[in-house]
Amino acid sequence: MASATADLRPSASPAGAKPLVRVENVVKHFPAGLGQSVKAVDGVSFEIREGETLGLVGESGCGKSTLARLVTQLIPVSSGNVYYEDVELTKLRGEKLRQRRRQLQMIFQDPFASLDPRMTVGDIIAEPLDNFGVVRGRSRNKRVQELLRLVGLNPNFNNRYPHEFSGGQRQRIGIARALALNPRLVVCDEAISALDVSIQAQIVNLLEDLQRELKLTYLFIAHDLSVVRHISDRVMVMYLGKIVEVADSVKTYSAPKHPYTKALLSAIPVPDPKIQQGRRLVELKGEIPSPLHPPSGCRFHTRCPIARLPTPCAETEPPLEEKLRDHLAACHFSSDV
C-alpha cells in the first residue's frame, strides 16, 4: 500500500489545541456470570484535540471498539466521565443526549454488515436526516446526492441497493451516512480492515481529504500500524483495557517508551528485504491474559521482556505519566525500552 508508507503529514493540531473530547477514568465491565465481569476498559483517560487524528492501536480484544462506543455513548460507562466540548455526556439522557450525538458519528468496520440490505442507498444516507428532521422533500434528495458526490460516488446511485456495490463503495456509503449531520468528531472503528489493500489506500486518502475540507476530528482505530502512522497526528496504544502509551506519531514510531509498543512496531514488515533481514523481532512470550482475571501490577508484566519480578512490575500498577514532553507511557522502566 503505497500511500501508507509516504512521508508523515504535518500535524493538523498543535499540542496546545483545545480538547474536543475528554475521557476521564472511564471503566466498562461486562457481566460474565458467577459474579465475574469482563474488564473491557479499566480506568482510561485521554483527550482528543480539535482538528487532529488520534490513532488507537492494540491487539484484538484489548478494548478498542468498546472504548469507541463509550466515547460516542453507544453504550453506557460503568464509571468515569466523557466530556464533549466540556459537556459531560455520561450525565445526559433522552433528547439532550440525542442532540449531542449529532456531533459524534461513527464509521463501522464491516461495510457489508453496517448497511441495511433492504434499504436503498439514498434512504440509508438520509436516515440520520430523517431522524433529526433536518431536511425534507427535494432538499433531502439534494443533500443525499451532495454526500454521494463528496465521497466519490455517482449521485445517481441513490436508488440502488447495497448488494450492487463493492466493499470499498459500501464503505464510502457508510462514510457519507456518518457525514450527513455535519459532525465534528468521527470515530473510524477499523474502517479499512475489511477492505482489500488496494482499496484501503483510497479510503485513507478520502478520509484525509474530508478532514481538510470539513475540518473534522478523527479517532482512528486500526490494526495496520503503517496506516496509523500515515494518518495520525498522535498515537495511543492500548493493552488489556489500559492505555500504555500516548505520543506524537513520529515519537511513537522512532522512540517508543513502552515495551509493548516496541514489540508492535517490530512486527511491521519493511518492503526492503535487506533491511527486513537485519531487523530484530521483539518476541512476546505467552498468551494475552484473560480480561476476566487481568494480572496484578502492570498488566503487561507476564509477557514483558524487561519486567523485573516480583517487584515492582507484578505488584504496582505503573501510572500513565509523562516521560518526555507530550510523551506519556505506563512503564516502571521506560528508560530500558
Order of helices and strands: EEEHEEHEHHHEHEHEEHHHEE
Largest sheet: 8 strands, mixed
Residue windows where pLDDT falls under 50 for at least 5 positions: 1-13
Number of helices: 10
Helix percentage range = 25-40%
**Reading side by side through the largest sheet, how are the strands ordered?**
6-7-8-3-9-10-12-11
Round the Cα radius of gyration to an integer and report it: 21 Å
Structural class: alpha/beta
Shape: globular
Taking the alpha carbons of the first and last residues, their distance comes to 29 Å
Strand content: 15-25%
Describe the 3D structure:
The chain is α/β, with parallel strands linked by helices. It has ten helices and twelve strands.
Secondary-structure map with pairings?
Layout: E1 19-33, E2 36-49, E3 53-57, H1 64-71, E4 79-84, E5 87-88, H2 94-101, E6 104-107, H3 121-132, H4 137-150, H5 167-179, E7 185-189, H6 197-214, E8 217-221, H7 225-231, E9 234-239, E10 242-248, H8 249-254, H9 259-266, H10 273-278, E11 321-324, E12 327-329
Parallel strand pairs: 3-8, 3-9, 6-7, 7-8
Antiparallel strand pairs: 1-2, 1-4, 4-5, 9-10, 10-12, 11-12
Helix pairs in contact: 3-4, 3-5, 4-5
